[in-house]
Amino acid sequence: MTPKATTDADSAYFLAHPLTSPLLRDKSYTQIPGGSALHHDPFFRRAARTNSAVLKSAFIFRALPNPEGHLFLQVGHGVCGQSGVAHGGFLATVMDEVSGNLIASARLDEGLGMYTAALNMGYKRPVLVEGYDLVTGEGNGDGRGSVVTATARLGRVEGRKVFMAAEIRDESGELCTTAELVFVKKKPVL
């Protein structure tokens, strides 16, 4: 599949959605144009942004008083492991992506970049993707997919380590997945 380009239509889509609209309208957040942080993640952009997986995306963050970021995704059947259920590996990637976007955007990495050192996931309930019958696996929706919101918050910073907490909520706002992450800041090149 050919990756789709992120457009202002993505932001307009999320502004019209009842779950994401209040956060996008909150003036304490900054929206990153194109839905990606200062450090582009080619894996996420190439692998997930297709005509059937990540259909639309937007990222907002605030650095003060406590760093927090939100990644809004409209997802389709291409993210499913089982029929109609988002793959757990995809959800782990989303947790890493929202946390990395927050770190880069809030400059918690001091511009050096970071590596993911640990990612501990907790799966609370499945993230259902609209348009698929869970019993038959057949398409039954209008193909618009589902909206998920991934949120990352700074826990603490200890030397070169940054500790984050993240979560994913489904289209109805139900908590589906949680994560604790540890990132390590890259050493400066001398």
UniProtKB/TrEMBL annotation:
Annotated ranges, domain Thioesterase: 84-129
The record's listing under SUPFAM superfamilies reads: Thioesterase/thiol ester dehydrase-isomerase (SSF54637)
Q: Which InterPro entries match?
A: HotDog_dom_sf, PTE-AB_protein, Thioestr_dom
Q: Which Pfam families match?
A: 4HBT
The UniProt entry, under PANTHER family, shows:
THIOESTERASE FAMILY PROTEIN (AFU_ORTHOLOGUE AFUA_7G03960), UPF0644 PROTEIN PB2B4.06
The name of this protein is HotDog domain-containing protein
Q: Which species is the source of this protein?
A: Aspergillus pseudoustus
